[in-house]
Write a structure and sequence with these properties.
By secondary structure, the chain is α/β, with parallel strands linked by helices. It has a single domain (about 1-270), classed as Purple Acid Phosphatase, chain A, domain 2 (4-Layer Sandwich), CATH 3.60.21.10. The protein is about 35% helix and about 25% strand. The relative contact order is 0.18. The mean pLDDT is about 95. The structure holds fe (ii) ion.
Length: about 270
């Protein structure tokens, strides 16, 4: 686990920018606009771009925003590429741009004496809703090399495996953060609870749920909330492109809205 202290009072959060859909000049203009937002740090919860454009888009962000930018990856960031190749790209970009902070689950970032932040990509584990009986197939299965080579039944297993790996990467960090801080912010790409898979104002239906939800991480978060009832847990995620807020007990999940061609900052979070 890596402990970091990055004082932040205002954190600007956006998700699912899919910058690859914009022309290069529009991408630059967007990032310059974002850089002007009154915030001490930024967070992007995945699907920043696609695998072919991620490196140049991360560099663009790193060159333009001279404040900490917490990043994690979504499924689209691996399109036309693989998990390993995408990770290499991110490592190269973060090595060149010290303000870019890739969150892998093992970083416990103190934002204030009472608030900690952590983040992990996460993956839809394929078990929610109709599970493997769902006939929906995301483009992940065509455009991410690690998945494209697998027969369909094995892909369901791979989804679970990925969700497990990401959950394992964040488990100890989450536990320590919830034990030590009054407020814990978790950044992730895929909504961890079915109730947070907003699509057109409602949670996603049974056919889409296996691809739009990560119950593996959801269980971990709910366990943490029971174990540490006095800690306020706030999750920021994306992936479904539908905006919504789900509250239960000491956990609140914000799912960010997103539209192709119109990236945006969803909200500026005041850190306690
Ligand atoms: Fe996504």
């Amino acid at each position: 686990m890596t402990h970091l202290s990055i004082p932040v009072r205002r954190l600007a959060w956006g998700t699912d920018w899919h910058m690859n859909f914009l022309k290069p000049a529009a991408r630059q203009a967007f990032i310059e606009r974002i850089a002007g937002i009154e915030a001490d740090a930024f967070a992007i919860t995945g699907d920043i771009s696609d695998g072919s454009n991620l490196e140049q888009d991360l560099r663009r962000i790193g060159n333009t925003i001279t404040k900490p930018v917490f990043v994690l990856l979504g499924n689209h960031d691996r399109y036309h590429s693989s998990f390993a190749a995408t990770e290499e790209i991110v490592q190269r970009a973060t090595a060149m741009h010290p303000y870019l902070r890739r969150l892998t689950g093992g970083e416990l970032v103190e934002l204030s004496p009472t608030t900690a932040l952590l983040g992990v990509d996460g993956w839809a584990d394929g078990t929610a809703g109709a599970g493997s009986a769902s006939e929906v197939e995301l483009n992940d299965s065509r455009f991410i090399r690690d998945l494209a080579v697998l027969p369909r039944p094995v892909r369901w297993l791979k989804m679970r495996e990925l969700a497990d790996e990401f959950a394992s990467a964040v488990a100890a960090t989450l536990n320590e953060a919830m034990a030590r801080y009054q407020n814990v912010i978790v950044l992730t790409h895929v909504p961890p609870l079915p109730e947070a898979t907003w699509h057109e104002g409602k949670p996603s239906d049974a056919e889409f749920l296996p691809h739009f939800c990560n119950p593996t991480l959801g269980r971990l978060l709910r366990e943490g909330c029971i174990k540490f009832p006095n800690t306020k847990l706030t999750v920021f995620c994306g992936h479904t492109h539908g905006e919504g807020v789900h509250r239960e007990g000491n956990m609140t999940v914000f799912t960010g809205g997103a539209e192709y061609f119109e990236p945006r900052v969803d909200r500026v979070i005041e850190i306690a």
